[in-house]
TrEMBL record:
<comment type="similarity">
    <text>Belongs to the CoA-transferase III family. Frc subfamily.</text>
</comment>
<dbReference type="Pfam" id="PF02515">
    <property type="entry name" value="CoA_transf_3"/>
</dbReference>
<feature type="binding site">
    <location>
        <position position="103"/>
    </location>
    <ligand>
        <name>CoA</name>
    </ligand>
</feature>
<feature type="binding site">
    <location>
        <begin position="135"/>
        <end position="138"/>
    </location>
    <ligand>
        <name>CoA</name>
    </ligand>
</feature>
<comment type="pathway">
    <text>Metabolic intermediate degradation; oxalate degradation; CO(2) and formate from oxalate: step 1/2.</text>
</comment>
<feature type="binding site">
    <location>
        <position position="37"/>
    </location>
    <ligand>
        <name>CoA</name>
    </ligand>
</feature>
<feature type="binding site">
    <location>
        <begin position="95"/>
        <end position="97"/>
    </location>
    <ligand>
        <name>CoA</name>
    </ligand>
</feature>
<feature type="active site" description="Nucleophile">
    <location>
        <position position="167"/>
    </location>
</feature>
<feature type="binding site">
    <location>
        <begin position="246"/>
        <end position="248"/>
    </location>
    <ligand>
        <name>substrate</name>
    </ligand>
</feature>
<dbReference type="InterPro" id="IPR044855">
    <property type="entry name" value="CoA-Trfase_III_dom3_sf"/>
</dbReference>
<keyword id="KW-0808">Transferase</keyword>
<dbReference type="GO" id="GO:0033611">
    <property type="term" value="P:oxalate catabolic process"/>
</dbReference>
<protein>
    <recommendedName>
        <fullName>Formyl-CoA:oxalate CoA-transferase</fullName>
        <ecNumber>2.8.3.16</ecNumber>
    </recommendedName>
</protein>
<comment type="function">
    <text>Involved in the catabolism of oxalate and in the adapatation to low pH via the induction of the oxalate-dependent acid tolerance response (ATR). Catalyzes the transfer of the CoA moiety from formyl-CoA to oxalate.</text>
</comment>
<dbReference type="InterPro" id="IPR050483">
    <property type="entry name" value="CoA-transferase_III_domain"/>
</dbReference>
<dbReference type="InterPro" id="IPR017659">
    <property type="entry name" value="Formyl_CoA_transfer"/>
</dbReference>
<dbReference type="GO" id="GO:0033608">
    <property type="term" value="F:formyl-CoA transferase activity"/>
</dbReference>
Amino acid sequence: MKALEGIKVLDFTHVQSGPTCTQILGWFGADVIKVERPGVGDATRQQLVDVPGADSLYFTMLNHNKRSIELNPKTDAGKEVLTRLIEECDVLVENFAPGALDRMGFPWERIQEINPRIIMASIKGFGPGKYQDCKVYENVAQCAGGSASTTGFRDGPPLVTGAQIGDSGTGLHLCLGIVTALFQREKTGKGQKVSCAMQDSVLNLARVKMRDQQRLQRGPLREYSQYGEGIPFGEAVPRAGNDSGGGQPGRILKCKGWETDPNAYTYFITQAAVWDQVCDVIGAPEWKDADGFRTPAERLDKLNMIFGRIEDWTMTKTKFEVMDICNPLNIPVGPILSMKEISEDEGLYQTGTMVRVDHPERGEYLSVGCPIKLSDSPVEVTRSPLLGEHTTEILSEVLGYSGEDLDRIVGSGAVGKPKEKSAA
Ligand SMILES: CC(C)(COP(=O)(O)OP(=O)(O)OC[C@H]1O[C@@H](n2cnc3c(N)ncnc32)[C@H](O)[C@@H]1OP(=O)(O)O)[C@@H](O)C(=O)NCCC(=O)NCCS
């Protein structure tokens, strides 16, 4: 049995943030019914296309374990079908621009009226306030949520990060809200509205930087490299390069081969508890008891020199050798892994974190599997649906349309052109 077996999700999501959320619900066993605009579908199907004529990886990697129904709720027949779907489903998830559902004729009040048990989950760029009507994409959220201003080097511009903390990060937050609301519904029998703003989710992930903003009012941030370098702080949390955020000095250092390999680097933390081991491993045992080196506080103004010496050592080793030598000594290090290296790591396929998926249009492709492992609800990743692949199946099996009634809906044009049968 899967954890969310029996839960039906009306998936009105598109692009990345919403689909991330519903994909997880699908991995946990929910029946996810993705509603898509007839003949068009989720815009990502046709974005960043690498195999002409096939759904893009952008789409396939975010829409596993779902069924697809084409439906235009802006027609009378479409409204009828959507109403039936709302009646049948436990959860409705959407990430339209603000007001889009209202304009379709389905505000929250109406949805609740149709099904008081339904949980309606929404992602918007901003919460209530002056920006509430804005359309928002990933990098806008990273900037508005405080991440960009605190990412990068002090003497460079703000940077966005490759991790999609605005889109996928918000999808994860929403997912937690949904299962929490489902849990509450077990006791109350009532649905509720779950809302996540992308700005809020990014800010939540940048929480430690808000911690530092307040610490800054009481004095300089001593663990930031700029403190040791004698550079004064301004009014806002500065960009800290690759300094570690936890108070233990850390840097990204070159390893053997860095001249030609852009990822021949390691993260290296000079954790106070293993200072002696660090000194021994890099061949500087004299630092263990030297004046000005004994305590973390004493070392702060020498970090550039210390990391320079450590880098002299890491440059003689590959990033994996650094890992192999430092790990048994409890020195925290981490190789900078490229996406190529990760995609070739068979261990990740064995745990299901990476998966190989077959697709009728594009053949086999790689995807990231479910990162959350439940011992009693194993995840089996199935390919994303073709556009409208399950329209007829959902109309008849989920909503009970048949005979003339089914013909009427199909003939109305509200559900696109029906497919004969599901593709293999
Ligand atoms: C992502 C976003 C910027 C995309 O904007 P967009 O491409 O213009 O898409 P919208 O959500 O505005 O929807 C466009 C229209 O398609 C319509 N539409 C969507 N699905 C439809 C369907 N199945 N049938 C008919 N019309 C449909 C909507 O009703 C809307 O029409 P309206 O503007 O006349 O009301 C926007 O949806 C948004 O801000 N979402 C919230 C934040 C978010 O999730 N952002 C990150 C996405 S990864």
